[in-house]
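FW: tagging you since you asked about this chain on Friday. Here's the raw sequence from the shared folder, copied in full. Didn't touch anything.
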Amino acid sequence: VTERNLRATTASTPLPPHRDTAVVGCCSTRTVSRSRQKMVNSSCEEPATKRARTYGARTDGAADSTCSGPASSEIPTADRQLSLSSGSTVDKCRQLDEGLAATFRRGDIRLLRRAWVLGAPDQRLPYRQVLEERERRGELPLLSPEEAAALLECGDRSIGALTHPWYSPGDPDPVGVKLKILREALLVLTHIEAIFVDYASLFQHPPKGTRTEAENEAFKRALGVMGDVYASAVGTTVLQIKEIPPRPQEFDGELCLFGLKAGVDEAAVCQALSDLSTEFESCDLAFESTYGVVRFTTHAAALRAKAANTFSELCGGVDTRYNERSYDGRGDGEGGRDGDEGRGWCCFEGGVSGELLVRLSVYPRMKAELDKLPPKLISLASGRAPEPVELSHSDVWQRVQQVVESIEKATFTGKGDKEVVPVLYKGYVERVATVLASTLALQTTLETAAEVPVMPSVDVPPAFALRLADGQLLLLPGADARLAGGDGAWLAEVDASHKIVRGRLFDNFVAELTFDGHSHAVIPWCPAEAGAEASLRRDLPALRALGERVQPLLKEVRQSEGELQKRGEASLIVVADAVELPMVATVARKAGDAIRQVLKKDAEYPPGEVAPPLGKRIQSLHASLELLSPEALKSLAVAAWREGGMVGARRFASGQRLVVRAADGAWRESAAEEACALDGGPASLHPWNHAPLEVSVNAFEALRAWHTIALRAQHSHIADALSGRRLDVLQQCVAIEVAGGGAELASVVDARSLAACLRTLHQERLAGGEATRPPATLLTAGPASGKTTLLSQVVVLSLDGELVPILIKMQILQQRLISSPDAFATAWNWVDAYLRIEHGETSPLYRMLRQAMMVRRALLLLDGLDEGGTNREQIERHVAEVLAPQGHVLLATSRPAGIGEARFTSFHRLSLSPLMPEQQEHALVQRVGKAQAAPLLEYVRDRVPIDAETGHCITANPLMLSMVASVFELRSGLPMPTTVAELYEVASDVMLSRGGAASGALRRLLQAVFFEAQVSQRRVIEDRQLDEAALGLDRPEALEAIRKRAAASPFDMRSSNSVENGHFGEIVEGEHSGKRGVIVRDESDLLKGR
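HL: got it, structure written out here
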């Protein structure tokens, strides 16, 4: 006996020898993981020499003659360290075996020890009760229940499960052929440590007797998990013996009568055989407790009696005592025998053996993980080495029907089995299809995107300092303006040093010139208005003087008519001068008209009309002068500078390094003094063809090429929400309709045409012509309608063009805004701030993306404006007032509810439309294939309900369509749920399993939330509903108290002059005192003093 020293992979000291180490003819040294130690240690109670004597094996290392067999094979052994640490795939599949492991622990199924099978002197396998009796006498033929469960949980297919045809009803292997085949195979299959053989592993009827009541109950329980024994993906290796040896002579002429009816005796048998009386020899109707035996003089006579249906009135079934029927069917003459349809239980075992693996085959990465284990199904036969059997995956859709048909056509010996076994198989498949959902959480992890090469190592030195020409006007952000989502509020000018900006008009500040420190708005862009900057500069001294003259007039006026008239007349003189300034002429006229109205005498009013009280007239005078206050004049100057059409023009100081798009479309590095003479011709600069140099052109192109590969890997496939399968993003159907905004988007119907339209918007800007509208688009759609999928499609479709896609989920941007406000307060836009935080300020990738935005060749894709949380207002403002005016090609998505419509009037508008029936059909055929789509299309047409709100079938929503397709794929070969409730139940179970939601508490919470939502017909579920459901389940008395307080005072009122749209308010003074309502428009000036 060669002792195998079993060591734990993490231990340096040897464990006690395994009791299974008395393996004759096996000299391999292997290791096992720590997870096997319990099983190993519990099996080491006897010296190896004693065990060797028990088994009758030799101790000189020579192989016993009964165990000779092939010396080598191509069957791989299990790599224990690999299979036990390969991660989630094996772990999840191991979870599918929990019911089987419980059956092992209960002892309903016992496993044969490998060492005993190889070393025992028996030439025929005893049945279970005999083996347990020998176990009680000290022999070790069987693993203990705990050992069996531990071995199963190792997940390395180290349990062999024998599937085989029984040669006779009382003994499946009366001449020991299978035992010899099994022993020869085990010498090769060194990873097999225990074997399931139904005859030895399950309680049997003993000779002339029956199972006890307890044994019968255990047998029934074992029968319930029989499918798991053969189907376990990682626990068992199926060993298949189909061989039918020649009939031994002692079985010639014998028929078995099963299910003998009451009162049948030998006389009745003789009477039934009157036509064959000369060939009838004898009968023993008590041969076994479950059948009797009739003997004929020849085997041919026995076959004639069987074919003549001679015993139909005497028993439930009849067959030859030596059963030569094939395993799973054969043709006439095959093997020198008549054709047949095979054996029912064998067809069942063969069917379930590959069921789970065939279904997992549609997930290649999971299959690849399982392929690291030894083969699942191995064919054994006399005189040859074991051979792996390749499981066919091509017929996964018809598999259930094919297996059921084979079972129904096959022959069963046992009464009632023909009805029971197909149901058993279908029930097993149903359970596998359901439980399989728990493995799909791996899909998003295992089916990862294509590998991305390492980012190239490029030299990206710090950028050159920005230097602008003396006198360049800029807009600088006001105090806290950027954190509020805004932009430039102060007018400033670059001084002669080219590095310092100084405030103009009434702001006498000094600041360092930086790229991020000033506004980069460029819309509107009107190159024809090249003199706008010079005109504004000329008017600035006059504006300053005007403000200085208005400032004293804003001082408080004494409550007298004389003082009012005096102040009003002085104001009219100032206003008259202001009218001469084009920038403020309109406002000055409005102020003058209001002042003259204030100064009207009582006699000047029409009869019956009375002049307002003095106090109100003084307030009106002050409000009129406020129109020309220094703050108002600053705003007017900023607005004039923006609307002049050249706010985005830049004059650079000599030597400023730039990147410029030349006439041939190539980007080149240049310097300010060369900017008018690239490639021998003038370069007309505009915001879309140049920017200060951030990274070299070569570095930019190298990083962009890598970024393109990374984006393609990330966005070319999406994870199906239900199954987790990776789906080709370009094959997903998302329908678009133009919701408003001009001819540019008239042709947009899908992602491909949308991507083309965005490229066109950029090409138009590259021409440098007038642009009064930003190249920005807002797409709105309801939840789960395909917005995120559409953005991934746009990314993939834009990778081969000039634009560089940058996709940002606004929910994550909001999180960064909260955690790092300083980064957003100092950045020229929040996308730049986000990228700087995500990648690092010195990251080459960040620098490349920043350069792309600086030259406005970035395609900004903003996913979910409505997901800005508490910062949604600031985020929407920033997108509309900063990013869009900066001239970036931009596509933002949002749910329509609550979007600030007024902010996005300059945006092109799109919405997602429901999928039409033909689009749904196309998507489903593309998803499951034309051959399999027919029943699914019928199901969608006939069973899927109409959404009462939209009037469309619920599968007009892409998520719902994908859900139906995923359920169909999971249940391939099984009927779809018959009701919508069942469909949603299946989908919910799968999604909860994918999310790891094994918690019953979570299920109860969701049930409570959805029930309340259904009762109240609420389609949008918010945090409040979750809180109420949780309280209702855990502390219903607290919820009741809260609801009583709310009923008594439904609103927590607080006095405030600060209001926001959407607030619920009560008017406390004036003619509408006591009325309540929702704030729908912010006109704060109307609320002052009330």
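FW: Residues 108 and 995 are 34 Å apart (CA to CA).
HL: agreed, and The chain is about 40% helix and 10% strand.
FW: great, closing this out.
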